[in-house]
Amino acid sequence: MDKNRLMEDRDHGDPMFPLRTYTEDKLDANGVIFGLHWHYEMEFTLLEKGPAIFQIGSSSVILQPGEAVLIPSGQLHAAYPYQQNCFQITAIVFHLNFLRSFAYDNIETNYLDRLKQLETSHPLIIKPETDWETSILHMLSRIIRYEQNKPPAYELAIKGSLFEVMAEWLGNYKIPDKVVHNEKTDQIKKVLLYIEAHYQEKIRIKDLAALVQMSEGHFNRFFKSLVRMTPIEYINTVRINYAAKLLRESNRKILTIALDVGFDNQSYFIRTFKRYKNCTPSQYRKVKEPAEEPIGF
Questions:
Q1: 19-172 in CATH: which number?
Q2: What pLDDT is recorded for position 29?
Q3: For the chain, which ranges sit under pLDDT 50?
Q4: Are strands 68-71 and 19-24 parallel, antiparallel or unpaired?
Q5: Where in the sequence of the chain do the CATH 1.10.10.60 domains occur?
Q6: What's the confidence (pLDDT) of residue 290?
Q7: How far is CA 49 from the centre of its chain?
Q8: According to the model, what pLDDT value does residue 235 have?
């Protein structure tokens, strides 16, 4: 999976059924399960084998097999291996519109509007410690089976199960009335969005540091503590992933692609590409790989 971009540029599912599941059991080129990213959709991620480390905003937690986490819309999140343990995670990613009705009804006012209050400081870790949490975990597993196997009327089964999940959760979990913003999360999101918008240009570390009013040294430590890459490594992964997309979808010359994604030296571009993709740009183009997934789920 291509897991090194900040915000995903794809739809999860399609407009007629905006839900999809994703399973991962291998590390990416940077040695992580998936890198720090965010999306507008909500996400339940179930750890099926583990343990593994999940980063939610600026905090991290070790999840054990059979546990899950709810990641609200707009929440920065990432996952990393725990020591040398094998892992398998499956994410259920869906847009809140999936649960909306044609009319503005009690479900909207009493429940779905409450979900809008969930921001980056309110993830939910689900452990099989109470009856309602155990029930949610069973229903998440059921949704995954339905989506992956697609039996007759699976769309109805999935939507019904997701309503059951929300009923158990909102019936037992109090969403705080006051949302507390995490300054570190806001700062890193600002930097990552800047990189995403300017990857084709020359990006200087001092300019990134200035965005969050830090010295270069402090900024480098701050960035690596949250993203687990240096700023240069992150910038290069963003550029390489855009380059891979251009190699798949166009016949542009390799030098032109290198320049288009922000590299000013073809040799350095080729070396960097090989480091991240385990092949040269020319070899990658010949393979004609299917479109890879964006960062994370």
A1: 2.60.120.280
A2: 73
A3: 1-11, 120-121, 289-295
A4: unpaired
A5: 183-286
A6: 45
A7: 19
A8: 93
The angle subtended at Cα 271 by Cα 219 and Cα 293, nearest 5°, is 75
Enter the DSSP assignment of 38: B
Beta partners for residue 94, in sequence order:
19, 42
**Which pLDDT score, from 0 to 100, does residue 21 have?**
95
* Rounded CA separation 274/115 (Å): 43
Angle between the N-to-C axes of helices 183-198 and 231-249, in degrees from 0 to 180, rounded to the nearest 10? 40
> Residue 288's pLDDT is what?
55
- What amino acid is encoded at 155 in this protein? E
Indicate the pTM of the whole model.
Answer: 0.69
Using one digit for the tens of pLDDT, what is the confidence trace for 128-149? 999 999 999 999 999 999 999 9
The DSSP string of 268-295 is HHHHHHHHHHSS-HHHHHHHTPPPPP-S
Which residues make up the CATH 2.60.120.280 domain(s) of the chain? 19-172
Residue 99 CA to residue 112 CA, distance in Å, equals: 8
Percent of the chain with pLDDT over 90: 51
Place of tokens 């509007």: 113
| CA gap 12, 296 in Å, rounded | 12
Question: What pLDDT, on the 0 to 100 scale, is given for residue 2?
Answer: 39
CA angle 30, 119, 54 (to 5 degrees): 30
Fold annotation for 183-286: Arc Repressor Mutant, subunit A (1.10.10)
How is residue 12 annotated by DSSP?
A: S
Instruction: For residue 59, give Cα distances in angstroms to 62, 148, 182, 256, 262.
Output: 11, 31, 10, 40, 32
Phi, psi of 96 (to 5 degrees): -60, -25
d(CA 239, CA 236): 5
